Amino acid sequence: MSGVNAGPAPSKQVFLYEIPQLAAGSKIRFLGCVTSYGVENATLTLAHYYPKTLPKAAEVAVNVELVLESITKDELQVGCWLNVIGYVQRPPRKRKRQQKGSETIDNGGTTVQAVMLWNAGALNVGNYERVVEASKATLASYKKMVEGKTD
Question: Is pTM, for the whole model, over 0.90?
Fold first, then answer.
């Protein structure tokens, strides 16, 4: 049967700094470092200082209510690198956040609703950044090639 959905929509791999530019409802996969956890609202704040040309680290609030039963205390610790799959959300009002001793880029109120989250473990962040950039370049090249074909 053509046109039948065989399962959930795939996620798009993005860098954390790209999240505010994505459409609400986009299903994404990204990596970030825990900078704080708000128990009262089950929200992790994740950051990633990439690309290095940014004046400050990009950060995003990640609502973990849907994964609370599977999350471990280690995954809530500041400094833990996490892989996240979730959906981009735009709250009705702009969220403001200030943290002592930390400079971050305002994400415009964009949040992510996590549907899956896991510890990245021992990670070479530089290698991760290079691999994701190469993957994005390959995908862009492929899309260009496909769009350039004529029937």
Answer: no
Q: Give the pair of three-digit tokens for residue 91.
A: 């709250």
Q: Quick one: average pLDDT of 7-15?
A: 90
Contacts of 34 (CB under 8 A, 6+ apart): 44, 45, 46, 75, 76, 77, 78, 79, 80, 81, 82
Q: Which 3-state string (H, E, C) describes the chain?
A: CCCCCCCCCCCEECCHHHHHHCCCCCEEEEEEEEEEEEHHHCEEEEEECCCCCCCCEEEEEEECHHHCCCCCHHHHCCCCEEEEEEEEECCCCCCCCCCCCCCEECCCCCEEEEEEEEECCCCCHHHHHHHHHHHHHHHHHHHHHHHHCCC
148, two tokens:
């350039």
Cα(79)–Cα(109) distance, integer angstroms: 23
The two beta strands, 111-119 and 57-63, are parallel
Predicted confidence at residue 148, as pLDDT, reads 76
- Which phi and psi (to 5°) does residue 59 adopt? -145, 160
